Amino acid sequence: MTKQIAILGSTGSIGRNALRVIDALGPDYSVIALSAHSNVELLAEQARLYKPKFVAVTNPDYAGQLCEFLGDLDVEVLTGPNGLVEAAEIEDVDIVLTAVVGAAGLPAVFAAARCGKQLAVANKEPLVVAGELLMSEARNNGGVILPVDSEHSAIFQAMQSGTREEVNKIILTASGGPFRGTTAEDIQNVTLEQALAHPVWNMGPKITVDSATMMNKAFEIIEARWLFDMPVDKIEVLIHPESIIHSLVEFVDGSVVAQLGEPDMCIPIQYALTYPQRVTGIAKRLRLDKISTLTFEKPDLETFRALRLAYEVVRSGGTAAAVFNAANEAAVEEFLAGGIEFVTIVELIEYCLNKHDVKTSASVEELLEADAWARKEVKFKVQKSIKA
Ligand SMILES: NC(=O)c1ccc[n+]([C@@H]2O[C@H](COP(=O)([O-])OP(=O)(O)OC[C@H]3O[C@@H](n4cnc5c(N)ncnc54)[C@H](OP(=O)(O)O)[C@@H]3O)[C@@H](O)[C@H]2O)c1
After folding, report:
1. What is the pTM of this model?
2. Cα 333 to averaged position of ligand 1 atoms, centre (Å)
3. Which of 187, 270, 322, 359 is least surrounded, with the fewest CB atoms within 10 Å of its CB?
4. How much distance in Å is there from the Cα of 170 to the middle of ligand 1?
5. What is the pLDDT of residues 100-124, one digit of tens each?
6. For 328-335, which contacts have Cβ atoms below 8 Å and span 24 or more sequence positions?
């Protein structure tokens, strides 16, 4: 039986890699839905090539243009943020690959979980914001959530060496990003260009900035907490600049199981699509004999305060993670637009977390309210500092 895949965010870095993986997997896998936010040229190109039954464009301003591009194709165009939800709910979809950026993907991820779909999750922000609710939604409806993030895919694979009770701790590896080895003083004046120059991974702009602040690793701590139902004090971060060991699991007997591979997102994307099978893939083979050394160091929690904040956010619970994520999204947007300095990103996040009254046991609506509040706070604070 052919597996039908909906790729939410097909025009992004993960989405484009997913299409390469699907090309190589052959006729057992086909694309039933694709989505973009505004890059309708690329979406139309992908639609001509993959002939999905549905395409979704979440920015309604581009819907007309997309319909024009696709006028001669037999394809249904879904529009607006709800178009993404509709794509996730399509009855014939077997696997929903979520590769949208940010909390904007949250309603669609919930919809897929509610429909009991197999979810291949790259879009980590919904798990950060609402991990507990999302995991139980999938569990209660017979859905499966498989990680695409390379670190969580590695942990997922390593976990298969024992039971959850036999796990002593999870060790998340991190490349350290472009500013590894710098001090808090050094990063005061870094430029956008420097922040976007990741030494290992070629990714979308938002996650690349998140890697530079180490907010990405902070999110991954929270993501691991929910994906693997692991107390946060059993999750450690280890800097490993070569990005060959994608993460490790230490078991109670002292054995440490790791997953290694070339730093290539096609490996975890493919595993999330073919799980529980492994098939020949397109990723370059790892040649350890060509790599003379693998190095490790402790993270610098003074320069990269985001990591420390992640533990505090998980301990606070409730709406804290929604504020943590939304303040970051709003601040990164400002930084990418040239409105604020690099160091201001984490300062704004700390400001919002300090000002926020955490609501514990929050519903999805309350999480979304906290998200909207934090975005407004960041905007207001940035405008105030520009006027001052
Ligand atoms: N890139 C990686 O290697 C990597 C690794 C691990 C995890 N991830 C995670 O995977 C997700 C995607 O990352 P990426 O690097 O692929 O991002 P990206 O290259 O920026 O692509 C983002 C995708 O989401 C769409 N999009 C943007 N804003 C949207 C909105 N408001 N509503 C719906 N769709 C929207 C984009 O459409 P347009 O093209 O039209 O703007 C594009 O298809 C992120 O959550 C990231 O943290 C990425």
Report:
1. 0.97
2. 13
3. 359
4. 26
5. 999 999 999 999 999 999 999 999 9
6. 328/210, 328/215, 329/102, 329/103, 329/125, 329/206, 329/375, 330/374, 330/375, 330/378, 330/379, 331/378, 332/206, 332/209, 332/210, 334/378, 334/382, 335/192, 335/195, 335/209
